Amino acid sequence: MVVKHTSHARFDLWYHVVFSTKYRKKIWTEPATKEQVETLMRAIARQYDLEVGSMTVLSDHVHFTMSAPPRIAPSRAIQILKSLSTRKLFQQFLWLKQHYWGGEIWIAGYFIRSVGPGLTKEDIERYIDEQSEEV
Fold first, then answer.
1. Whole-structure pTM over 0.70, yes or no?
2. CA-CA distance, 59 to 9, in Å (whole number)?
3. How many alpha carbons fall within 13 Å on the CB side of residue 111?
4. pLDDT tens digits along 11-28
């Protein structure tokens, strides 16, 4: 357990986050594209003082663990990641406009769970790492 700090707080807050593509379209099918989505999400997180742990990009959703300082509400952290990634992904992948002409890639909702003693960060990261498209 690494306790992080800001000028006025010490914290170890981790969340398990999942959000899907709009209409659950399976648009992240190429391994190189999935890697670029992950790289972009991690870069955005770093810019806003967020830390992303394990991340898996599946064809129609992303799973990841995230740490945020107490001054950033979890809903705000998700809003930052979804809105900025949408803008950058439309710039990076022009073909997305064929699927999403309305300018939104992610659904409005999301799943978030805090990670604690009953369900550790390691448990969640192991689960995320084991996710795949195989049925």
1. yes
2. 38
3. 11
4. 889 999 999 999 999 999
